[in-house]
Amino acid sequence: MNEPLDSRQRVHLEWMFENQPDLTRQLHQSGKLRQHLHRKNQQALRLVHNLKQSRGLSEDEAFDVAMSSVLAPPDGPAMSDKPPEAVPWREQEQIYKRLEA
After folding, report:
1. What is the model's pTM?
2. Region for residue 73 given its phi and psi (left: phi exceeds 0; alpha: psi -120 to 50; beta: otherwise)
3. Tens digit of pLDDT for each residue in 71-91?
4. Residue 29 burial (CB < 10 Å; 0-12/13-18/19+)?
5. Residue 71 in contact with residue 8, Cβ under 8 Å?
């Protein structure tokens, strides 16, 4: 059984559903979605660590930066003039079930 996704992985997955639906499906079908979410989470954690060390940011401030630059950029494709069609809710449910089965 897989570990449940943590909150940061869920944030990125939700962002992917809206901004990168084709990549989400591709990674899911190839069995590499969990690995991708883990890599993004690790990238965000490294950024938090670096920001705390180099700029003296608090944990919360550093996570805010990591959220907007790595996990859920506010200027993603969903905000463009021609946003991608998001992954439908039922398909999202299936992806969550498979990831946490």
Report:
1. 0.93
2. beta
3. 999 999 999 999 999 999 999
4. exposed
5. yes
pLDDT tens column, 4-42: 899 999 999 999 999 999 999 999 999 999 999 999 999
**Residues 73 and 3 sit within 8 Å (Cβ to Cβ):** no
Chain-centre distance of CA 26, in angstroms? 15
Of the candidates 68, 10, 66, the one whose C-alpha atom is nearest the C-alpha of residue 38 is 10
- How far is Cα 76 from Cα 52, in angstroms, rounded to an integer? 25
Closest CA to 23 of 70, 75, 69, 77: 77
Give CA–CA dist 72/79, Å, rounded: 12
Structural contact between residues 5 and 97, judged by C-beta atoms closer than 8 angstroms: no
The C-alpha atoms of residue 66 and residue 11 are separated, in whole angstroms, by 12
